[in-house]
Amino acid sequence: MPADLTALAAGARVVFFSGKGGVGKTTLAAATAVAEADAGRRVLLVSTDPAHNLGHLFGARLTDAPTALIQHDDGACGAGRLDALELDPAAATEKHLREVGATIRALMPEHLHREVDKYLRLASEAPGTHEASVLERIAELTEQVAGEADPAGRQSTASAQPEVGYDVVIFDTAPSGHTARLMELPEMMTAWTDGLLKRREASEKFGAALVGLGGKSGAAETRDARIRSVLTRRRTRFAKLRELLSDPARCAFVLVLAAERLPVAETIEFAGQLRAQGIGVRSLVVNKRSPADAGEFLARRRAQEKPFVADLASALPGVPVLNLRLAAEEIRGLDGLRSVPGLAEGPGAG
Length: 350
Description:
By secondary structure, the chain is of the alpha/beta class. The chain has helices at about 5-10, 25-40, 55-60, 90-105, 115-125, 130-140, 175-210, 220-245, 260-275, 295-315, 335-340, and strands at about 15-20, 40-45, 65-70, 80-85, 170, 250-260, 285-290, 320-325. The protein is about 50% helix and about 15% strand.
């Protein structure tokens, strides 16, 4: 059983909090981020959920760029700090399509560029485009972790504070159904980019033959090199993200749920989907457990929760479970988030 919230992220460079909507994963992700920052780590907290609640939770206005929420300069908390951002899906999609469009136009004859633009306008509303955009942004943000180098060996353009470098990036994700789909994408995107690279390679071989005949310009060779560089960088980025997600030493997946029938069933199914993709679950957090010693009503609720928690432990043996009691008051602000570790129940809670 995890001893406390910091055990959920201990040693990890990237942590994902996921679960069914309304179970409290945003609160748990934020409380863990605060605990990590107070313990001296440099933390970036990211909400990928379109229904952003992170800013409301902290009582701060958050944007798509990092906003400083905690800054420990010295003392017991060392250089711990917490920055947070709420990912802007529309901006991420626009940027993603702009970059993809530039790559596709470079691959196509000029007289087809208008068709490419038409395709991209349709693609902006197509299923999967939003997920691909969010994935690209997630990959970019994981490169903010100190030691996780940019695929091109450069500082990411998303880094508004490149001198910071984070010890850990914590993601508060969309409900589990969306996240399951998202986690499938790195492999798909790698394969898609591999296909473009092979097509590019064939084109370059044809171009090399033209050079021998005096039919290819230096400008065309420069364009080929630029396209190959873009494709290789994207391919490397997705492959690195896929490698990171499947490395339990660097990546922790924490599933948050309520002790009720549907959240337990969905959690078990989601853990199976992750396992099939080679992604392990580090911890389970059963949130808002009813106290057994606060009146008959809550005691009856506690008794109803027990078999669901038992089902969870039986279906996912070996995955540590942290039980958190229902808070007496709404959790908001830094003080509220710092009270969350005190809600942890001891070993043997059923």
